[in-house]
Amino acid sequence: MTLGFFVLHELRLTTCDDSTRVLAAARLARMPRSEDEQVLPLLVSIDDRRAVACVRRVPTLPESDDAGVRIRMALAPEPESSAPPRYYKERGGLTGRRGVRSYYRMAVTESGTNEQAKVLVDMPVLSPSMPSLSRSGGTADAGLLWIGTPIATETGLLVITGHQDASAYSDGDAPDWPLPMSRDLGVRIYESVRP
After folding, report:
1. Could you give the 3-state DSSP secondary structure of residue 176?
2. What CA–CA distance (Å, rounded) separates 52 from 31?
């Protein structure tokens, strides 16, 4: 697997109802894309349902934000606001061989220095056949893990995990998660749209 780049687009929808998010996710899935880019399904903030994110994995850094225009058009009606895209260098990952991943979670922050995290930052891309441990302790399909570090700064991190469904994670709902601590640390957490 060749390392690439991640482009993060964070937007704010005009409303927070479920039907708007499901429609936005469906439009994003049908969005035209270039042959060499991977686009994850629409991700929604776990504590602000109007905040959404789109992540693209590309082999080279784009020269312009054409994809940002495509994303805003796909999310019609036009999002209330959108942040400039953020660019990350892929620093490592793990990808399982089997199964279609349909559920993703992402954590992103601008805090924390990457110089002190050489072990994490310089981790190699692991073999696609490497297994992971399921909650029961047995071997399961590895799912997906992508880690990116910002291009423009020495601080921050992007971590994306993907599984066949949400059952790969603990059964706790978002209200049970340590959200106040995440907010204090400047971490934004997103998950796939659930129909």
Report:
1. helix
2. 16
